[in-house]
Amino acid sequence: FEGLPGEAVAVVNADDANVVGQASRFSGRRLTFGTAGEVRAEDVACKRVDASSFHLCTGGERLRVELPLGGRHNVQNALAALAESEGRLCTATIAFYKALGGGWGG
Description:
Elements: E1 9-13, H1 17-23, E2 29-33, E3 40-48, E4 51-58, E5 61-67, H2 72-85, H3 90-99
Parallel strand pairs: 1-2
Antiparallel strand pairs: 3-4, 4-5
């Protein structure tokens, strides 16, 4: 996190103690993702090689997501991407999700 300007937002994997420790030295805003992060997945299911499902929980919202990629590592990747967009796109994404009737993928 060295070299990040103070106005930056550091996206931090809350499931990695080393990353959390390094991020604690950053004086700007930190946004966490992972099992205990501000952007987190609950009820993760990876029952197929080519699909995962979970509930995305962020900002008081809980949304069902069907990811067309298998494995918990891809759920973590999706959480990281969503955390990165949290300040700019997540509100619009949630509104779009609700407009679709509350479901993605399938």
